[in-house]
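Project outcomes to date are best conveyed with an example. Our students and postdoctoral researchers have been running inverse folding experiments weekly, and each run begins with a structure described purely in tokens. The record below, which covers 347 residues, was selected by the lab manager from last quarter's runs and is presented without edits.
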């Protein structure tokens, strides 16, 4: 298996559709959106308690409108047409106003963002948020961003946008935005430098790992990447105390435990290190053989490390058993425990 750094990242931010609309085109788009909204409301696909002005200012309502249209395109097929009056049924076709549906979506999202930012500022066109909105404008294009607009306005500052650029589009939920917003720009820069092509993957899948990536010495980060493979970033997203516990161990131990370290409780790590390092991986292999689909669930349960694994490791840690003898004894002990698991879980 390749290490996470051995291949270019598969994570690329989406590219917003280009848009350069004159005022007349904007008016035609808004008129078309109003017509589609009225149609969906008439067919009872949307509640009729809000018009265009209310929906364009409310991210939740706008998202519902967009999703409802996508799920019911046939309901407005005679309204969403090209220059020849033919229905436009995909995102590539040009509408009669010479734009695509993704470009319409971008206009709606950007308009909604402006209204959200202005409502938070208290007065249109003033405050730091106006400048932040201008920085964000090239990136505001997708309906999935609508639930994040208030997060953008409340959590981010212009330094985050400058540091991340289009990579900001890899953050798809409020939790990730909140994590990154709590990081200094210098941490983002250092994390990008330390991770190279893996930066985007970590940002997209484990943003909580970024600060720990910077904290880890480069030699330790290399050990983590090699030993944990695809679980490396999940490991780096763990609490600092756990990382300190693990990284205080010999690299040979970390490599022996491998990817499962990303999820183990501290208690289990301490029990495993009671064994000679050359016995750790064989014991884990036997463990996964005996417990099969339950193995990972048991290993991440702190009670299992304290109440079960401690007895196994202590009985296997002494003496100078041959490999075959060790494997046979480990198998017998773990098999004997298998029938007691439900009782152990209940304690």
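After processing, the design step wrote out the following sequence:
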């Amino acid at each position: 298996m390749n290490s996470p750094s051995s291949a270019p990242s598969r994570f690329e931010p989406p590219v917003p559709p280009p848009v350069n609309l004159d005022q007349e085109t904007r008016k035609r788009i808004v008129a078309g959106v109003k017509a589609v909204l009225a149609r969906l409301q008439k067919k009872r696909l949307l509640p009729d308690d809000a018009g265009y002005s209310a929906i364009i200012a409310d991210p939740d309502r706008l998202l519902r409108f967009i999703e409802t249209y996508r799920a019911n395109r046939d309901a407005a097929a005679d309204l969403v047409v090209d220059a020849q009056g033919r229905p436009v049924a995909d995102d590539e076709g040009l509408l009669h106003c010479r734009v695509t549906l993704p470009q319409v979506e971008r206009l709606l999202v950007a308009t909604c963002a402006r209204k959200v930012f202005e409502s938070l500022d208290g007065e249109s066109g003033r405050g730091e948020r106006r400048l932040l909105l201008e920085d964000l404008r090239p990136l505001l294009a997708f309906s999935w961003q609508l639930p994040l607009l208030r997060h953008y306005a409340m959590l981010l500052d212009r330094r985050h946008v400058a540091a991340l650029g289009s990579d900001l589009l890899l953050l798809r939920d409020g939790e990730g935005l909140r994590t990154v917003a709590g990081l200094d720009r210098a941490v983002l820069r250092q994390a990008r430098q330390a991770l190279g092509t893996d930066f985007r993957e970590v940002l997209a899948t484990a943003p909580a790992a970024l600060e720990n990536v910077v904290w880890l010495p480069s030699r330790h980060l290399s050990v983590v990447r090699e030993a944990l493979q695809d679980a490396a970033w999940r490991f780096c997203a763990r609490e600092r105390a756990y990382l300190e516990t693990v990284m205080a161990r010999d690299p040979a131990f970390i490599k022996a435990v491998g990817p499962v370290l990303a999820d183990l409780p501290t208690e289990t790590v301490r029990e495993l290190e009671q064994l000679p390092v050359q016995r750790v991986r064989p014991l884990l292999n036997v463990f996964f053989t005996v417990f099969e689909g339950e193995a990972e669930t048991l290993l991440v349960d702190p009670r299992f490390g304290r109440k079960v694994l401690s007895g196994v490791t202590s009985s296997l840690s002494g003496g100078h058993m041959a490999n075959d003898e060790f494997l046979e004894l480990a198998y017998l002990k773990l098999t004997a425990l298998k029938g007691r698991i439900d009782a152990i879980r209940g304690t």
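Residues 235 and 261 are 7 Å apart (CA to CA). The mean pLDDT is 89. The training component of this project remains on track.
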